[in-house]
């Protein structure tokens, strides 16, 4: 099922109420019943409207958008949600952590980690100025606009009770983004075949997951291009300096207090985070 963004099933008041609920859940650490269960008429378009209003409120409070993320990039994850395309969200500046950070596991609900590559843009992605058909962005456009590639870990967050949750809940919850652990080293994208970057995820000394970057829509730059095109459809430019989180090539792995997490990337070193 491709995401249907053509119509709304909720009123503006219902959308605003969901944003209020999510903000309160983030503040208190409580989890709320899935919106999809309480609002059967809710559509993907409604979910992105919830996300848009949540973002607008955070920006009005002084938050700064520093990047963008794509999720559900693997076939397995899409099948789990009955979809055939990814979802996407935004990254605020205060959600970017330095590699080597020590963080509280309880800062996020049901914290899980994923292994990803990020693109740091040297130039803006302006709607209609891609090299593809009708000005769409391509993987080549992403690479041309990229200053460097940065290995990164994503920490997932979830403010909904997961039993019964669907993709409209995930999208409403900013595509489940909790934080990004940004690697300390930056790499020239031209120096690697970015579709063949292998990685091992280790927790407390044991390898718990492995993956290869080509699992992300065939190439992480293709994944980033897909996301840039979704924002372009809304008339939104992705500015220079943005960090584009291109999607996980490992399964989400739960973490808890006491876990030492290391992602070891082929040719790109390690990204570490300690949970307390």
Automatic annotation (TrEMBL):
One GO cellular component term noted in the UniProt record for this chain: cytoplasm
This protein's record includes keyword Chloroplast: no
Record-linked SUPFAM superfamilies: FAH (SSF56529)
Classification via InterPro entries: Fumarylacetoacetase_C_sf, Hydratase-Decarb/MhpD_sf
Entry's EC annotation: 4.2.-.-
UniProt GO molecular function: 2-oxopent-4-enoate hydratase activity
UniProt keyword Glycoprotein, yes or no: no
Keyword vocabulary terms for this entry: Lyase
Protein name as catalogued: 2-oxo-hepta-3-ene-1,7-dioic acid hydratase
Species in which this protein is naturally found: Brevibacterium yomogidense
């Amino acid at each position: 099922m491709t995401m249907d963004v053509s119509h709304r099933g909720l009123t503006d008041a219902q959308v605003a109420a969901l944003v209020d609920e999510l903000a309160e859940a983030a503040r208190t650490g409580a989890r709320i019943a899935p919106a999809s269960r309480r609002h059967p008429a809710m559509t993907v378009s409604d979910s992105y409207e919830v996300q848009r209003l949540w973002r607008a409120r955070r920006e009005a409070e002084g938050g700064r958008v520093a990047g963008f993320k794509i999720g559900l990039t693997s076939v397995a994850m899409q099948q789990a949600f009955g979809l055939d395309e990814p979802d996407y969200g935004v990254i605020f500046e205060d959600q970017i952590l330095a590699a080597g950070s020590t963080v509280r596991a309880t800062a996020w609900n049901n914290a899980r980690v994923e292994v990803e590559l990020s693109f740091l843009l040297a130039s803006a992605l302006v709607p209609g100025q891609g090299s593809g058909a009708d000005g769409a962005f391509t993987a080549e456009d992403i690479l041309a606009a990229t200053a460097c590639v940065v290995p990164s870990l994503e920490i997932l967050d979830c403010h909904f009770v997961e039993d019964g949750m669907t993709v409209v809940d995930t999208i409403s919850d900013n595509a489940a983004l909790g934080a990004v652990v940004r690697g300390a080293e930056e790499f020239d994208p031209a120096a690697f075949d970015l579709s063949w970057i292998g990685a091992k995820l280790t927790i407390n000394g044991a390898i718990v997951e492995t993956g290869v970057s080509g699992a992300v829509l065939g190439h992480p730059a293709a994944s980033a291009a897909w996301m840039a095109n979704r924002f372009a459809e809304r008339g939104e430019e992705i500015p220079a300096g943005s960090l584009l989180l291109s999607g996980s090539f490992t399964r989400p792995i739960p973490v808890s207090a006491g876990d030492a997490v290391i992602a070891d990337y082929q040719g790109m070193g390690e990204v570490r985070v300690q949970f307390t």
